[in-house]
């Protein structure tokens, strides 16, 4: 490679990193935290659900005080909190705790701090996918892969979530990188211990980071098994390496196996939708489209939805034709056949597992776009290789790359401004609806059966506190347990100690209940509250306004 090519290669790689970093860190605190991010914050700050103000009236302007860093908490304590109160492995939360500890000196913007580590891992994944395609195909393909991931609206969305998606995606990409290297070793009849050792090490870390990493690991085992089967030289030795390596990973996960089984049976996993007959197939296609383009179609007018949906469909068909043509060319070339087979096999085995989970367990994980992070690295790598090596001329490849980048940047802008991949339950919209009369004091009541309901209520309270920052001194928040039944909530509400000077707007968020379950009248600390039928809303969960007045009104 000439000096000029080396310079252009380095420039392209750095450009992809810079563009990806800008899109991921741009307006990182703009969107409100939603339920899952609140859960991340609780555990990442060294706390647990027992530290939350439950069944007591809490000033709304003190809600941010819940999210103060608690020093002196060990990873063992965090792991215990996760094991008993969550449904995830502990490693990400231990890392987040250390990150928040290091960031304590950098001001009070805790939301940006919380989201910055996932954003950083999102940038790291760009570098990792570059390496994957450099090894599998070429440096040019590596640059295209890095650029595609840098501007992917799906990858930007994941990177701006204070959740454990970009870290396992980064680990999956590293694991895929080593799988590609092992694939080359198999084809070239070489055995390199360090490639297997690093593959095992990264896999162990992945197992303790996200349960879905196991899907990628199984897909890699299946893919390597096929490669070993077709390779007639050193077949037994390579198979022995695979068996020892795989067994080592599973042995290292034994300490967490019982916790994993316990997590699988917890009620928090029951929220996934039931599986329709063909739903997993078209939902997977939608998820693939969202990896490259995401225009505003959520909660928009019919005209905008139709126009944006049609544009996305046209672009998806065009991109699909390019990918099919490119993959066919790569498959037929001796120099790229095995790399193409490895990536297709890896991605296909993950998708098969997703379908198996959906149909066998009845919990349709394909309905949740963010779970596509497991196979996204494989899709990104194949798309980049198709663009780079599947075109007749270099000019066509460059034009297509630029068009993908343009569409990706535009889509990512929509994501950053919460017009694409909108936050579930839309806390900002809930806050705006509740703040219909800013001059009146307000009380937010959330009924809960589990701690997820509490986290949902706190996400609304955070958005509401921000919306009412100038008038929140007399506003309050309370989470009331629905035990033994919903009627217990109304009794607890009447017994609260709340001062109403003249009028108060009482908002009741009640997950799982129907509109008719809201009583026409309630008592709040001896004061009458009357339902306002014009202000009932439902955004995934219902919330209803009551107008309260003291006895002298």
Report on this structure:
With 553 residues, this protein is of the alpha/beta class. Helices cover 59% and strands 9% of the residues. The chain contains 20 helices and seven strands. The protein has helices at 3-25, 35-44, 75-85, 91-102, 110-136, 139-151, 153-159, 166-187, 193-207, 213-230, 235-252, 257-264, 279-290, 302-332, 337-361, 376-389, 394-416, 427-434, 451-467, 486-495, and strands at 58-59, 442-448, 476-481, 503-509, 521-524, 527-539, 541-549. It has a seven-stranded mixed β-sheet, sandwiched between helices. A hairpin with a 2-residue loop joins strand 5 and strand 6 (527-539). The mean pLDDT is 92.
Topology, number of strands: 7
Count of helical stretches: 20
Q: How does the helix and strand content classify structurally?
A: alpha/beta
Provide the β-strand percentage band: 5-15%
- What order do the SSEs take from the amino end to the carboxyl end, as H and E? HHEHHHHHHHHHHHHHHHHEHEHEEEE
Entry keywords:
single chain; about 550 residues; alpha/beta; 7-stranded mixed β-sheet; 20 helices; 7 strands; about 10% strand; globular
What topology emerges from the helices and strands here?
Layout: H1 3-25, H2 35-44, E1 58-59, H3 75-85, H4 91-102, H5 110-136, H6 139-151, H7 153-159, H8 166-187, H9 193-207, H10 213-230, H11 235-252, H12 257-264, H13 279-290, H14 302-332, H15 337-361, H16 376-389, H17 394-416, H18 427-434, E2 442-448, H19 451-467, E3 476-481, H20 486-495, E4 503-509, E5 521-524, E6 527-539, E7 541-549
Parallel strand pairs: 2-3, 2-4
Antiparallel strand pairs: 1-3, 4-7, 5-6, 6-7
């Amino acid at each position: 490679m000439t000096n000029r090519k080396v310079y252009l290669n380095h420039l392209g790689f750095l450009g992809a990193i810079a563009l990806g970093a800008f899109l991921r860190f741009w307006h990182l605190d703009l969107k409100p935290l939603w339920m899952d991010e609140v859960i991340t914050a609780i555990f990442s700050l060294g706390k647990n659900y027992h530290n939350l103000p439950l069944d007591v009236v809490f000033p709304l302007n003190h809600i941010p005080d819940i999210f103060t860093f608690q020093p002196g908490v060990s990873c063992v304590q965090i792991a215990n909190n996760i094991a008993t109160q969550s449904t995830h492995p502990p490693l990400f939360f231990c890392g987040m705790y250390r990150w928040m500890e290091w960031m304590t000196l950098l001001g009070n913007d805790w939301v940006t701090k919380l989201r910055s580590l996932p954003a950083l891992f999102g940038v790291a994944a760009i570098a990792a996918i570059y390496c994957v395609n450099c090894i599998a195909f070429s440096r040019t393909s590596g640059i295209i892969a890095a650029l595609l991931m840098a501007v992917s609206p799906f990858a930007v969305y994941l990177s701006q979530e204070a959740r454990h998606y970009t870290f396992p995606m980064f680990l999956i990409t590293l694991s895929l990188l080593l799988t590609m290297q092992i694939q080359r070793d198999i084809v070239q009849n070489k055995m390199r211990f360090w490639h297997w050792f690093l593959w095992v090490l990264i896999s162990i870390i992945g197992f303790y980071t996200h349960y879905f990493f196991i899907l990628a690991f199984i897909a890699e085992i299946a893919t390597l098994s096929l490669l070993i089967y077709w390779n007639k030289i050193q077949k037994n030795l390579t198979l022995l390496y695979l068996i020892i390596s795989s067994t080592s990973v599973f042995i290292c996960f034994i300490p967490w196996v019982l916790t994993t089984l316990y997590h699988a049976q917890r009620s928090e996993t029951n929220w996934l939708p039931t599986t329709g007959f063909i739903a997993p197939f078209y939902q997977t296609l939608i998820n693939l489209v969202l990896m490259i383009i995401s225009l505003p179609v959520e909660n928009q007018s019919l005209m905008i939805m139709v126009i944006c949906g049609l544009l996305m469909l046209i672009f998806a068909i065009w991109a699909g034709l390019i990918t099919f043509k490119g993959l066919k060319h790569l498959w037929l070339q001796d120099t790229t056949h095995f790399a193409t087979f490895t990536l297709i096999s890896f991605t296909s085995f993950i998708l098969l597992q997703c379908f198996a989970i959906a149909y066998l367990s009845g919990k349709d994980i394909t309905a949740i776009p963010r779970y596509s992070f497991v196979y996204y690295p494989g899709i990104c790598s194949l798309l980049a290789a198709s663009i780079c090596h599947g075109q007749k001329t270099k000019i066509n490849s460059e034009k297509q790359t630029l068009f993908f980048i343009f569409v990706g940047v535009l889509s990512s802008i929509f994501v950053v401004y919460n017009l694409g991949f909108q936050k579930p339950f839309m806390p900002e919209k809930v806050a705006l609806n509740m703040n219909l009369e800013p001059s009146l004091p307000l009380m937010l009541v959330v009924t809960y059966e589990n701690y997820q309901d509490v986290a949902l209520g706190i996400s609304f309270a955070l958005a509401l506190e921000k919306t009412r920052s100038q008038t929140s001194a007399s506003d309050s928040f309370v989470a009331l347990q629905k035990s033994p039944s919903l009627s217990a909530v109304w009794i607890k509400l009447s017994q609260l100690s709340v001062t109403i000077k003249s009028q108060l707007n009482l908002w009741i968020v009640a997950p799982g209940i129907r509109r008719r379950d809201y009583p026409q009248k309630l008592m709040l600390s001896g004061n009458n509250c009357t339902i306002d039928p014009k202000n009932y809303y439902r955004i995934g969960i219902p919330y209803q306004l009551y107008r309260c007045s003291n006895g002298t009104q």
